[in-house]
Each structure stands twice: as C-alpha cells, then as structure tokens.
Amino acid sequence: MEMDKVLDVQNLHAVFRINKKEYEVLHDISFSVRRNETVCIVGESGCGKSVTTLCVMGLLPKNGRVTSGSIRLDNTELTGLSQKAIRKFRGSKMGMIFQEPMTALNPLLTVGYQMRENLILHRGVDRKKANEMAVEYLTKVGIANPEQRLKQFPFQLSGGLRQRVLIAMVLSAQPDLLIADEPTTALDVTIQKQVLALLNHLKKEMNAGIMFITHDLGVVAEIADRIVVLYAGRKVEEGTVEQIFRNPLHPYTVGLINAVPDVEKEEFVIQPIPGMFPNITEEIPGCRFNPRCPHAAECALCSKEAPKMTEAEPGHFAACHLITAGGAQHD
Amino acid sequence: MKREHPLRTAFRKLFQNRLATICFFVLMIELVLILFAPQIAKCDPNETNILLRLRPGFWASSDPKYVPEHWLGTDELGRDIWARLLYGGRVSLMVGFTATAIGLFFGTILGLLAGYYKHLDNVIMRIMDVLFTFPSILLALLIVAMLGVSVKNATIAISIWSIPSFARMIRSRVLQIKQEEYITAIQSLGATDFWILSRHVLSNTLPTIIVIATMRIASAILSIATLSYLGVGVPVPQAEWGGMISSAKTQMFQAPYLIIIPGIAIIITVICFNILGDKLRDILDPNLKD
C-alpha cells in the first residue's frame, strides 16, 4: 500500500511573508495520492488549495516558504531541495495543468514548437520523432487533424482545444503525478465533461495519480476517488466520495454540499454558508470555522481549542469537536 | 483556415497605413541609392577639383531641362555633392544600424537578466542609471576622446550610449512577461531558466525590440551626424552628412545649399525611421508610450 503512494504530504506548514510579517497559509496539511487515484482538494477561494499545489511543484512565490512537514514524491523528499534539483522532477515526475488554458501557452510560438520542445527536453528524442510523438499525443487527447493543429498558434484554438493541448503536453512527459489546478473552471459545461472524462481515461491508461484542485462539487462527484476538504489553510475533512457526500461530518463540508443548488428540490434556493471567509491575517482562536459554524453555540470547546483529526469511520477523517463529543447530528 | 504569424499580421497592418508605407518606401529607395552609390554617382566623392569650386546645381537655371554635370553642385573643394551625399549616407546608415545592433544585443541581455533575476535587477539597473546621467553627446565625446577619432570608435560610443535605454525598456517588458501564466506553465514542465529566457521571454519581447530599435536607428543616425559635425565622428576626407554640414559652415552664406542638402537628407531619414517606429508601436505594443 505504501509503495503505491505517488505523492505523500505529511504535516505540511507554509507561510507567506507580507509586510515583513509571516502569516501561516497552510497548517498541518496531510494527504496522499496513490497511483490510479484522483484526490480532489476542495475549498473556497483562498483556503490554500493552490498554495498546496505550488508547494508540491516547488513554485511558491519568493515571499512564501514551507516551514515544516514533508512532501514525498515517489519516496523522494521534495522539501528542502534546491530549485535546480526540484526542476528535474517537474514535468518528468509531476506535471501541472493550469486553470486558464487561454494564458498557459506562449502566444508567439506554435503549438507544435511548444510540444516538441517539451518532448525533446523530457524524452530526449530528435525533432522528427518529437513531431510524430506530438501528433500521437494530440490524437490521444482527442484532437482531430493533429498535424494541422501543430502548425497553429494558440490564439487560433478554442479554450477546450488549448486545455487538451496542455494536457497532451503534460502527459507527453509521462509524469507519475498529475496536478490539475481547476482545469475545467474556464471551460463551458459540455467541454468540461469531455475534459473530465479524458482525464479519467488517461489516468487509468498511464497509471498515474491525479491531484485535482476545484471548488466545484459537481466536478468532484464526477472525478474524485477521495476528497480532502480544506478550510482557511487547514484540513477539515477527508474521505472517499461516498463518505463525504453521503455522510459529511464537518459542518463546513455540510455547508458546501448544501450550497450546491438542487434542481430536483421543490423550493429551489441556494443555501450559502453565512459569514465571510477569514483573511489570512486574522487570528481565530480554536476552530477556524467557529465564527461561521451553525453548531458553534452547542459546543463550548470550539472557540477555545483547535479540534483534532479523528477517524469517524475507516478512511473518513474530520476535525470537529462535535464528532469527538459523540456523533454530530447534521441534517 | 488562416495561418499567419502575429508579427506578419503586424506588418500587414503597417502597410495599411499610408504614411508608414511612404516612409518605408522612402527608406527603401534611400537604401538602394546608397548601396549602389558607385554605379549611381559615377564620380569619386573625395576627388577635388579646384576649378569647379562651389558650382551650383540644377537650381542655377530656370530652364527645367538644364542639368549641369554635377546636378547637386559642388562644394568648396569642387567635390560632387551628390556623390558625397550617397557615400555619406553609407556611413550614416551603417553606423546607425551597427550601433543599434550592438546596443540592442547588450541592452537585451542586460534587460532580460535584470527583469528575470531579482537579485541582479538592482545592480544592473543602477549601472544603467549611471550611464543615463551622462548627457548622450558628452558620453560619446568622452569615449571618442579616449579611443581616438574613427568610424569604429564613433559606432562604439553610440552603441554604449544606447544600451541603457534598451536595457530599461526590455526589463520593464520582462517584468510583465514573467507574471504570465505560460511562464509558470513552462516552469512546471521543468524548463531551465536559460531556456525560458532565451525562447519564451525573448520571443515575447520581440514587439518591443522592433519598435525601440527602429526609433533608436533614427537617433543613432542623428548622433553620428552630430559627432561628425563636432569633428569627432568620421575622419575628415571621408564623406558623412554631419561632416558635410560642418565643413560647409564657412560657406554658409555664399552657398547655403551645402548645408541644406545634407540637412534634408538627415531630416528625411530620421523622420522616416521615427514615423515607422511610431506606427509600429501603435500596432505592436500600444502600452509602450514613453
């Protein structure tokens, strides 16, 4: 089982320095991604989803740094590696798909040039072979007439096509871990479906692990094997899709799921989570979700002590005092 | 399905503009005249003839059919002005292009490094600031004074003077490009800094480079004319537009055409390059207004 883990993040802490003060953006994050598994990281904007991916890729901005914890990629420790050393892993071991396919390709170079360059770099093939492989990978991601596409510039392709090109580029380096940072957010719903199906298919074919960042629970339900819910830089719940959707334990997860409009319900209302997402500069004692939690009044501990991760059922973890206090009652 | 490189689109747009097209063709004609100067001018630009001093050109007679042997007249040493104008243009344009190319080469490298590496930024840009504080002609005079008067040294002087402005412009562009997502995307694919800089950042500074280089050629031509006028550009017998004006100073009231003709040549060339640069900027890089 341990051997299966492509990515293993343990007790990761990260800070950002703003105006000479350091603020913690990730607090004690642990999760792992196995081969042929999709782990979705879910949460509101600013909860630390993207920062987590940047930590893994070693692409944190200059004012951010990992303070403690470990990131193991295929049993190689990544934290503490120099940029030069971590560069060897980028692309070849872990590939990243970005949110905005419109801006993630160099506008002045042809698709073919950018794909070839990547193949030459990672697969050590010559130009001619690289071209053949580029065609092959474009076909693999479902692009019709790939030869012609290779000669085109990014601005001649639609968003869905560009995202496919990017996926093809990342895959062509044969990474073990695929990091997808909201890859479908900028696409319309039909294209979204196709891209998700493609990722699912490719994951099996390449036997890779996917770390999927999103705030769209519809997408989560479609693609995830397991879910990690983040709130304000902390992991609040983790479990399989079934566990999380059938039996959400943390009030925040419940809120997220309730916030998805259900067209089948008679009264069609969106239930937002009350309150505002905390700023990273804010100090919140106890459970960070406490000020917005509908159950805060029921529990005295919430505002005093940070809750610990507890295993409620096998493989299903949550950090909430209500669980430790003996079974939370959520509706 | 149309397939056109963005830069080619830009040049197509350029030719939709009448003024820019005229400027482009004026410069092209100039280039042809200068390149084929020996065939067109027929006589040696340095051949003096004391018997033919200060002969006026075609304007001496009101008869439009009157074409004298030296159609633009001769100067105070009896040298053919038309020949001197063409050969002088060779020097001006050559210095203009080479000085810009050299300045561009070093300016781009420094600008790329300063924009991309934060720790180099301060060092490089402060050195550039020091170069900037020198008035341009003073700096050129200083360099020529140290190295001696020759076309080569004048070129070096002008190129050194143009490095800081290139570096500054490229740097500000790189700072923008660095923020683009495709740079992060390429980083995440494991590309080295050298690769990113040389392929991806450089290709995106190209519009800026084209625009400022065009403008720079104009100022370089003006500079070599100024240096020659001051007597530290092109050594004396060799023809050069600024030098021609300089040597005609004493005959200014006797034969004003000696000054007017090379003056017009400088003005046309510089204005054409400037307009071309201006239009290119409108098309390629609307943000670049200095």
Task: Give your account of this protein's structure.
The complex is a heterodimer of chains A (331) and B (290). Chain A is an alpha/beta fold. Chain A has 2 domains: 2-93 and 175-324, 3-Layer(aba) Sandwich (Rossmann fold); 103-174, no CATH class. Helices cover 31% and strands 25% of the residues of chain A. Chain A has 11 helices and 12 strands. In chain A, the strands form 2 sheets. Chain A has an 8-stranded mixed sheet with strand order 6-7-8-3-9-10-12-11, sandwiched between helices. Chain A has a 4-stranded antiparallel sheet with strand order 2-1-4-5, with helices on one face. Chain A starts with a strand and ends in a 7-residue tail after the last helix. Mean pLDDT of chain A is 85; it is low at 327-331. The radius of gyration of chain B is 22 Å and the shape is elongated. In chain B, 71% of the residues lie in helices and 0% in strands. Chain B is built from 11 helices and no strands. The interface between A and B is medium-sized, with 34 and 23 residues.
Give the SSE layout:
The complex is a heterodimer of chains A (331) and B (290).
Chain A: E1 5-18, E2 21-34, E3 38-42, H1 49-57, E4 64-73, E5 76-77, H2 83-87, E6 94-97, H3 111-123, H4 127-140, H5 146-150, H6 159-172, E7 177-181, H7 189-206, E8 209-214, H8 217-223, E9 226-231, E10 234-240, H9 241-246, H10 251-258, E11 309-313, E12 316-319, H11 321-324
Parallel strand pairs in A: 3-8, 3-9, 6-7, 7-8
Antiparallel strand pairs in A: 1-2, 1-4, 4-5, 9-10, 10-12, 11-12
Chain B: H1 6-14, H2 18-35, H3 37-41, H4 81-116, H5 118-133, H6 136-147, H7 151-178, H8 181-188, H9 193-229, H10 241-248, H11 257-284
